[in-house]
Amino acid sequence: MNRDIMGKAVLVTGGAGFIGSHLVDRLIDSGVEKVFIIDNMFLGNEKNLSNALNKGAVLYKDDAEIYSTLEYIIKENQISIVFNCATKALNYSFVNPSNAYMTNVNIMVNLLELQRKGLFKTLCHFSTSEVYGTALYTPMDEKHPVDPTTTYAAGKAAADIMLGSYVKMYDLDAFIVRPFNNYGPRQNYEGKLAGVIPITISKILSGQMPEIHGKGLQKRDFIYVEDTADAVLKLYPVLSPGDTVNISANGMIEIKDLIHKITKIMNYEGQILYKDRRVSDVDCHNASNKKFLSIVPFDFTPLEEGLKKTVEWYNNHLQKR
What we know:
38% of the residues lie in helices and 16% in strands. The protein has helices at residues 18-29, 50-54, 67-76, 97-116, 151-170, 196-205, 225-235, 255-265, 290-295, 303-320; strands spanning 9-13, 34-38, 58-60, 81-84, 122-126, 173-179, 181-183, 211-213, 219-224, 244-247, 252-254, 273-275. The longest helix is centred in the first third of the chain and has 20 residues, at 97-116.
């Protein structure tokens, strides 16, 4: 493949969210004609797009689960490429399991049907490492069995399988990128849907104790969010239809060690609160990025450096609030 993104009209579903907004920023700087965004603001935030909107990006505050809405946006703006980042947070599946599942499936059905009918040319779908479940072997490559432990992950897995079947049936130009655990600026830090890194930083900044669920032995493979956005744009021109690739910085760490790294960076010497382990929590994620690095050269942000950047961003952001 040799796809060209230059001069094309691009739609990012979920583009006001954490990963989506960083992708939008990179797309604007990459030479596309115009970036359009659809986001129902479930976790998205217009503030995440302040720079992008000033540079001409267009935001639709609407729902990609509504077929007619997507159809209108794609037709009206002559969209050529769709990056599908729309989803609901993993933690939401513990609150509303059915809806967390169906969101992923409904959006994928809508996009594939619109693509099948010729309304746009290329689909880049963001999957998740959560589809693998707990590692049966490490490092986990793209051939690792799919065994989701949450309905969020099950919905993502169903969407991935659906994409593969449409590519086979209708010869669509669609492929899957599978980032591991993203962290960095703009990740949600509030409430039950917060990520572990931002909520830890937020608690320390607000004078609360950081938390560890269980013994903190769960292992995760973290990647700085700006690296993910850059990696996707490097992969975009070259991935074959139907292909899947892990995006990982090979940065696996136990959660307890991660929390201690954050407390050290923030000079926090107080207590850490231990809580019950979360049901269905994945034990181990350790990705193989061998395939990714065989396709494109890449220098990943070291975890320590990324954490320092992240702490600095939240420190500035929360002080302003």
